[in-house]
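Form 12-C: Joint structure prediction
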Amino acid sequence: MPATLHRRAVVKALMQDPGDDLLVVAGLGQCTWDITAAGDRPQNMPLWGGMGGAAMVGLGLALAQPRKRVLVITGDGDMLMGLGSLATIAAQRPTNLAVIVLDNEKFGETGNQATHTAPATGAPTERGAGTDLAAVARGCGIADSAVIAHDSDVPQLAKDARTKPGPIFRTVKVMTEVLPQTMPPKDGAYLKDRFRHAVLGTA
Amino acid sequence: MSAAATDWREQIFETLKAHDIRQVYYVPDAGHSRLIELCQTSNAMRAIVLTTEEEAMAGTLGAWLGGEKSVTLMQSSGVGNCINMLGLSKTLRYPMLMLITMRGDFGEMNPWQNAMGQATPKVLEAAGCIVFSVERAEEVQPTVHAATNMAFEGNQAVAVLLRQKLIGAKSFGKD
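Section 2 - Result
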């Protein structure tokens, strides 16, 4: 069934008020443009590299800041490269961590090649393995894992992502879209210092 | 450091504790097993078992973003798993402290360890890490202390290689 959800609308629903103290880590590629389009803010940590690492950045942050909510927003390609981190997160059981994968079944930055989450049937350039990342997360020990595919489920997704005791994992099936590249600052040291200053009061 | 700690593994633990290291990322290694146990049972630290060492590079970034110090314990073969992620420290300038037990080093009996073991210091240096090497028990504590200071005062990746002259080579039944 073709996806109907727009990724930018989902991310906007997740982030809601740019003035709140939600801590957001975005995996490289489109997710960094998505969180920036929703409103660039110091408590955003958009990654421009380190593919496969977004969920682990979220874990380290969630353990260090147990009283704040940490949201990882990443893509299927990034999550596939770091599948083991789902088991690592499950072993730590961070109650303040939500991992949201915007799954368009494509390696978006490199020409929209099919990832493993694409259906196992189809033309050679379109097929994957039908990998169900929420099932992988559940199998790794993150019991609260689910797939979101309908517009009507987005308000509950946003509520769960922001408030439900974690760790929680959600695959959100989104359309493949051509969208403006709304870029955050590119300098990693600046992004890190900006984030620490906002969260800790010191860089 | 407590006066009771005379074993270098316990001295590492006491040094990490004194530096307020809170998150300990590890893939198990025989050379680190005593240290891992001490970290697992410490109230001041959280021991985080990994499926692959590169998870630690990202976890360490998250910890620092949230204001906590961390360390990564791994074997030299694990350094090979980390190469791309090692570059994150140079790019974002955050502290990355690594304590690495060597394989493929002095007296190694498993030749499959030799290639990565010999490449380990070069790989670390190529990615921008400062590398210290320890062969004698009495040098462990001062080196870990110095490396920790340089990592966290300098927003720098620093690795301490615990060489096989220090930890010994697994014999595989041969002497």
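Section 3 - Comments
The two ends of chain A are 47 Å apart (CA to CA). Chain A touches chain B at residues 23, 25, 45, 49-65, 82, 84-85, 87-88, 91-92, 188-189, 191-192, 195-196, 199-200 (CB under 8 Å).
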